[in-house]
Structures are given as C-alpha cells and as structure tokens.
Amino acid sequence: MDTDLLKSLVPFFYKSAPLYVKKGQVIIRPEDTLNNIYFIEKGFVRFYHLSEDGKEYTFLIYKPGYVFPIIYTFTGKATRYYFEAMTPVTLRRTTREEFGKILEENSPLSNLINKELVIRFEELLEKEELLSFGNASRIVAYILRSCALQFGEPVQKYIVIQLKLRHQDIASMAGLTRETVSIEMKKLENEGLIQYRRGRIQIREQKVFNKATGLDF
C-alpha cells in the first residue's frame, strides 16, 4: 500500500478500539450485511471465493495497512466472497457511511484510495491472464514472485516471504491442486530457486528467479 495512503488512514482508524481476530476466523461472509470498513493493524487477511463444490480460490491477500472491503464502500452491494484471518489479526473499523463521508471531504485521500484499487485490479488481471495461458510451473512461480514482492524482505541472495504459506495456500491462489503445487515447489527447490527457513519460503533474488522461471516479461 502507498505509504502516503497509510499515513492518511492511521489517524482516522486509530480513533476506534482494536478488534482481535483469531487465525482461521472468517471476518466477512457472503450473507453478512456490510456495515463496516476494516483497517488491518497487524496480521494478514485472505480474500477468497468458495465454489459450490467446496473449492476455494484466493484472489488477494491483504497485509497490515490495507483496508477492506473497500470496493463496497462505493457500491453499497453485498459481497459474494469471504474475508478470513490467515494469522492472528488486529483490526480497526469504522462504519461504511463514516468512511464515505471522510472520502467526500478529503479528495487527496479519495484519490489515493482510487489509485490503490486500480493497482489491486491490475494485479488480478495479470494473475487471471497467467492462469488462463500459463502452465503449472509458471503459475506457481508467479504466485511466489507476487508474494515476495508484497510480503518479502531481502536477505542476502534471497527474498524471505514473511507470511508463512502452506502448499494449500499457494494452490488456492494458483487454481491448482495441492499435489501439483507440491511437485512444482520441489522442482524449484531442487533448482536452488527457493528454500525454506523457519517455516517461511525464500525465493532467489528477482532477476535470477524471473529468468529461470520465464517470468522476465
């Protein structure tokens, strides 16, 4: 998230008391009435869809500083999706009406929010394009690269993804089975492109990883 946007949101949301959410707890369900807008103070929140046959597909993962479900602030429509705590999460919240009022009165903040929405939409488009035309190896590599860019910290020749990701988490983001993801992850590990440290995935520095996995486009 843009640092200017984060700085603008912190004073506003910190007027509210913190809301503590346990790992695995669903924060928003499709049947819920959307009266609140949430700001993530700590932890990670997963935005996903659950199909009729019970398959989960993760669209995005939100990190500290993000606001959700932001698009419904403008539309007022009910969501068809789930928002779930991937880790223990601390949230701040306000009403949808109050947040809308703040945006109306603060055009720079409104512009920053719109910019953030465009960035997230572009991410989804790029991901969907790759899912449509890429093979399993490239799709898994793309998911790892995206997570490294969003949640990574450089350590020597690797980027450490700070969010602990299970193979099932990656499968949900990639639209693949867990077994396929495990096979592809093992290939990347054997090629020296990823490694594990204290339960976290590390990928090789971006230029090396992109070239080796065909993501240097």
Describe this structure in words.
The chain has 217 residues and is an alpha+beta fold. It contains eight helices and twelve strands. The strands form three sheets. The protein has a four-stranded antiparallel beta sheet. A four-stranded antiparallel beta sheet has the order 2-7-4-5. Strands 9-10-12-11 form a four-stranded antiparallel beta sheet. A hairpin with a 2-residue loop joins β9 (152-155) and β10 (158-161). α5 crosses α6 (167-174) and α6 (167-174) crosses α7. The two termini are 23 Å apart.
Fold topology:
Blueprint: H1 3-13, E1 19-21, E2 26-28, E3 36-42, E4 45-50, E5 56-62, E6 67-68, H2 71-75, E7 82-85, E8 89-95, H3 96-105, H4 107-133, H5 136-151, E9 152-155, E10 158-161, H6 167-174, H7 178-190, E11 194-197, E12 200-204, H8 206-213
Antiparallel strand pairs: 1-8, 2-7, 3-6, 3-8, 4-5, 4-7, 9-10, 10-12, 11-12
Task: Write a concise synopsis of the structure shown.
It is built from 8 helices and 12 strands. It has helices at about 5-15, 70-75, 95-105, 105-135, 135-150, 165-175, 180-190, 205-215; strands at about 20, 25-30, 35-40, 45-50, 55-60, 65-70, 80-85, 90-95, 150-155, 160, 195, 200-205.
